[in-house]
Write a structure and sequence with these properties.
Its cofactor is Mg(2+). This protein has 134 residues and is an alpha+beta fold. It is built from 2 helices and 7 strands, in the order E-E-E-E-H-E-E-E-H. It binds 8-OXO-2'-deoxyguanosine-5'-triphosphate (8DG).
Length: 134
């Protein structure tokens, strides 16, 4: 089947206690209120790593480097009339303090506690994979 494919990059930021940061999608956005991994769409010609470094700065006010982004796993799922490919990286090193600059809220959760959160459908299969990786 043919579909328009779009690529999204996202990060599982992991703190010293092994917790992961999730952010709540704001009112007025698609899937408002769901908890997601910070990230977003690639701009034309942008590498996935450069896009993720940019998104983390824009959404959370933190600085990181592509050398701190470890490719972890991916999701591939229909989203509306398009097809989403979500590349998930693990990031343990950044500078600055996380602030919800775009999100309605952010919180740090242990991987096992992600199951209880309302997340976009594409994210659900990522939870077990993250649990196994962390
Ligand atoms: N950042 C992020 N996006 C996700 C996740 N899971 C998931 O399905 N998505 C989807 C939601 C959006 O359609 C798209 C990310 O787009 P975006 O964050 O750059 O832009 P947006 O909210 O304005 O997107 P949209 O309203 O145009 O759909 O990927 C996730 O864990 N993190």
């Amino acid at each position: 089947m043919n579909a328009t494919i779009f690529t999204v990059v996202a990060a599982a930021l992991v703190d010293r206690d092994g917790r992961i940061l999730v952010q709540k999608r704001p009112e007025g956005s698609s899937m408002a209120g769901l908890w997601e991994f910070p990230g977003g769409k690639l701009e034309p010609g942008e590498t996935p790593e450069a896009a993720l470094v940019r998104e983390l700065k824009e959404e959370l006010g933190i600085e990181t480097d592509k050398s701190c982004l470890a490719p972890a796993t991916f999701a591939s799922d229909a989203l509306g009339n398009k097809h989403l490919v979500l590349l998930l990286y693990i990031c343990r090193k950044w500078q600055g303090t996380v602030e919800p600059l775009h999100a309605a809220a952010v919180k740090w959760v242990y991987p096992r506690d992600l199951y209880a959160l309302e997340m976009p459908p594409a994210d659900r299969p990522l939870i077990g994979l993250l649990e196994a990786l962390l």
